[in-house]
Amino acid sequence: MYDVIVMGGGIIGCSVAWQLSKLGKKVLIVERTDIASGSAGATDGVVGYHTKKPGPQLDLAVQSIEMFKTLNEELGMDVEYGLEAGGIQPVENKEQWDMLSAMAEEQRKSGVDIRMISAREACQIEPNLNPDIYGALYSPTGGKVNPLALTVAFSRAAKKLGAEIMTNTEVTGFIIEEGRAKGVVTSKGEFRADAIVNACGSWAGKVAKLAGLDLPIKPRKGQLAVTEPIGPYLTATVQCALYNVIKFRPETIKDQTVLKLGSSLSIEQQESGGLIIGGTREFVDYEGENTFEAVETMMKRAVRFFPALKDVSVIRFFSGFRPYTPDGLSLLGEVKTLPGFYMAAGHEGDGIALAPITGKLIAELIVTGKTSYDISDFSPNRFL
Ligand SMILES: Cc1cc2nc3c(=O)[nH]c(=O)nc-3n(C[C@H](O)[C@H](O)[C@H](O)COP(=O)(O)OP(=O)(O)OC[C@H]3O[C@@H](n4cnc5c(N)ncnc54)[C@H](O)[C@@H]3O)c2cc1C
């Protein structure tokens, strides 16, 4: 018998498990394959404000990013957090400039420093950036992290405090008694708990369905390329303006290919020196292959903004799934129709940045029945 069973050993599940363990709860993580085998191991590591939808998601990110500052120390492991890497979004035309300016105005309502800058200023910050741009959006205070290292650090810290981790164990059903969730049925038997948390990322909708719940989380694929390590090339994380437009205002995109592939650019340099290049957003169910069409688009976008990259070798391609929700907000909280069943999923392209605060708030909710920060906008019950 456990106090809490966390389903899914991704960055969200491991963060929730660590926070619950800190509060003295006996926790079991049940993971279908291995820790960080989902999106946490197939992602960029942008921990910035400027890529967050204005409103509740950005407000939550502000809370979360504050927590990153002390994570190395608290977790006892270097998670490669670059605090002031900053973020830049090069803009290609006046239409994009106007759209990003309006978004930035909304984003500033969360108290963050996000502003429009000239092409010259952008190139002073990132000297390898193609000066042939209209201008850029700039956020000087966001950072980046190694998502794999952070997930492993959360899981190890939870384990140190007594959490148990069962890998290669799939949740296939639930124990429901008198209308309340009482445990999970898995490929390795049944386990009981006072509360269970669905942190299954892009699969969270499928897992919820096993309990008869219809929650609209679906996978949104992102393809990525990694280059050979090169010398210092980029400080900030860079996403072209289309990145925010596709994420927040897809209805404004007229080009059907751009819309289908969600083709923008996202690029950052890891501590190892390799560049991670990505920026696609596709609805193709769980088809994880890298496709010529998407890879070609990504590479063209990369060279358009960073011409010198044409001579750099790519050593690996891979893809991951963002847990998409229709309104762009995560699902955090207890399901009203099934007491004892909590959702901590649906973070789309923001799950790395939002992992620390998600763990904290879900743990508070389970242990005390309330949270130190209002998460009513994120209630899973808005879909029920
Ligand atoms: C290309 C790409 C780029 C991204 N860039 C960023 C970024 O720069 N910044 C950012 O903040 N976010 C980014 N994201 C988003 C981020 O990666 C995700 O939001 C985050 O990883 C979601 O974490 P999770 O723990 O919810 O899901 P996951 O990491 O996918 O974990 C879910 C886990 O549940 C397990 N599971 C599934 N079904 C079952 C079952 N039945 N039983 C037991 N276990 C099960 C899976 O095996 C998996 O390990 C990006 C994502 C992608 C794909």
Low-confidence stretches: none
Radius of gyration: 20 Å
The secondary-structure element order is EHEEHHEHEHEEHEEEEHEEHHEEHEEEH
In CATH terms, the superfamily of the largest domain is: FAD/NAD(P)-binding domain
The major β-sheet equals: 8 strands, mixed
The CATH architecture of the largest domain would be 3-Layer(bba) Sandwich
> How many beta-strand elements?
18
Nearest-integer average pLDDT: 95
Structural class: alpha/beta
| CATH fold-type name of the largest domain | FAD/NAD(P)-binding domain
Strand content: 15-25%
- What spatial form do the alpha-carbon principal axes imply? globular
Heterogens: flavin-adenine dinucleotide
Count helical runs: 11
Total of domains: 2
The assembly state of the depicted protein chains is single chain
* Percent of residues in helices: 25-40%
